């Protein structure tokens, strides 16, 4: 039993996710059909990319609560340019740049102005939402958009959806960055022991800016792909992904590297949450049951990873003596 405890601590949540899949597969055989699995994978792609960005910010002990609004603004900027007849390359570049600029602004406000990320990113969320409604005037951009743009999300390569490839590429890039590069080591050191890292020569302010900037870029990519997939762009289109993204990262902290934000954990958690929601719909559960279950997942995941989350959300937020 003693030898089993470390295994369960590391992989217990992942096994619970697998159990959820098995249960729904037994209750509803359609759950594991290729068509339904494609739906789950599509939803996981949007959530996974957004969550991976949040993971990079949380690694540095910072929170980005603007991810959904920034993703929506990026979609709106992209959609506005496509709707106006600009080429797909220009529109996509503008959407990604929007996320990048918003993330960089968050990083500068946090490290230069010494505003806690909890407050800074809430402010950014309000700004991004306002800009989205200003650009659209409250009316979503819709229409028959060029295949060169929509193909980013709707196409497939070797029989696998482009969205799955985008998710795989993003996850691989984040994993290599965090686990195989010096920058990744510095990002982790900044989040786990900022003062010690600073004394060791790590540019902790720069690392925090990098984490928040990459988080914004992840939100930008999510927005671009949402617009390409739906052929529409609205200022609140990514709103439903916000709590799921936070839940995916927190739940991911309970597996593989307990107590630490990590790429494999975030991916498994994102898939588990979307599989759970899909399964509940198939068994006929009321729409509000998903919200109740999501709330329970968030509370449970925070309880299981309270130490790391406490450092990220409270201790570091109260430390206003940040390096420039």
Notes on the structure:
- The protein is mainly α.
- It has a single domain (9-318), classed as ABC transporter involved in vitamin B12 uptake, BtuC, CATH 1.10.3470.
- Helix content is 75%, strand content 2%.
- The chain is built from 14 helices and four strands.
- It has helices at 4-27, 34-59, 67-83, 88-111, 117-136, 147-154, 162-180, 182-192, 194-199, 204-230, 241-252, 263-282, 287-304, 306-315, and strands at 141-142, 156-157, 160-161, 232-233.
- Strands 1-4 form a two-stranded antiparallel sheet. The protein has a two-stranded antiparallel ribbon with strand order 2-3.
- β2 and β3 (160-161) form a beta hairpin.
- α2 runs parallel beside α7 (162-180) and α4 runs antiparallel to α5 (117-136).
- The chain is globular.
- The model is unreliable at 307-324 (pLDDT under 50).
- It is found in: Cell membrane.
- It holds the Pfam family BPD_transp_2.
- It comes from Siculibacillus lacustris.
User: Which CATH C-level class is it?
Assistant: Mainly Alpha
**What is the second-level CATH architecture?**
Orthogonal Bundle
Low-confidence stretches: 307-324
Radius of gyration, rounded? Answer: 20 Å
Record the strand order, biggest sheet.
1-4
State mean pLDDT (0 to 100 scale): 88
How helical, in percent, are the residues?
A: over 70%
Return the string of H and E elements. Answer: HHHHHEHEEHHHHEHHHH
The CATH topology is given as ABC transporter involved in vitamin B12 uptake, BtuC
Count of separate DSSP helical elements: 14
Instruction: Give the percentage of residues in beta strands.
Output: under 5%
What structural class should be given to the helix and strand makeup? mainly alpha
Assembly context of the chains: single chain
The end-to-end distance, rounded to whole angstroms, is: 49 Å
- The total number of structural domains is 1
List how many beta strands DSSP finds: 4
Largest sheet, strands/sense/barrel: 2 strands, antiparallel
CA-based shape:
globular
């Amino acid at each position: 039993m003693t030898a089993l405890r470390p295994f369960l601590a590391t992989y217990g949540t992942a096994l619970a996710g697998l159990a959820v899949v098995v249960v729904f597969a037994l209750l509803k055989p359609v759950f594991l059909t290729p068509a339904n699995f494609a739906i789950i994978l599509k939803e996981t792609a949007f959530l996974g990319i957004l969550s991976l960005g949040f993971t990079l910010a949380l690694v540095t002990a910072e929170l980005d609560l603007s991810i959904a609004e920034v993703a929506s603004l990026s979609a709106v900027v992209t959609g506005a340019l496509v709707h106006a007849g600009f080429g797909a390359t220009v529109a996509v570049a503008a959407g990604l740049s929007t996320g990048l600029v918003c993330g960089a602004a968050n990083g500068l406000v946090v490290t230069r102005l010494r505003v806690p990320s909890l407050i800074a990113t809430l402010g950014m969320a309000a700004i991004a939402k306002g800009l989205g409604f200003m650009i659209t005037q409250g009316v979503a951009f819709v229409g028959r958009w060029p295949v060169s743009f929509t193909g980013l999300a709707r196409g497939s390569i070797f029989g696998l959806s482009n969205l799955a490839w985008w998710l795989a590429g993003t996850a691989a890039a984040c994993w290599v960055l965090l686990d195989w590069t010096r920058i990744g080591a510095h990002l982790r050191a900044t989040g786990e022991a900022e003062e010690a890292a600073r004394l060791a020569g790590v540019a902790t302010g720069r690392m925090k800016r990098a984490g928040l900037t990459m988080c914004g870029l992840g939100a930008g990519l999510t927005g671009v792909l949402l617009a390409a997939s739906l052929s529409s762009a609205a200022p609140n289109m990514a709103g439903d992904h916000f709590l799921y993204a936070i839940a995916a990262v927190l739940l991911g902290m309970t597996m593989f590297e307990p107590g630490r934000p990590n790429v494999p954990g975030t991916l498994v958690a994102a898939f588990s949450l979307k599989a759970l929601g899909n399964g509940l719909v198939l068994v006929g559960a009321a729409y509000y049951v998903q919200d109740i279950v999501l709330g329970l997942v968030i509370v449970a995941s925070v309880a299981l990873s309270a130490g790391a989350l406490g450092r990220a959300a409270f201790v570091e937020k109260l430390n206003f003596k940040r390096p420039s």
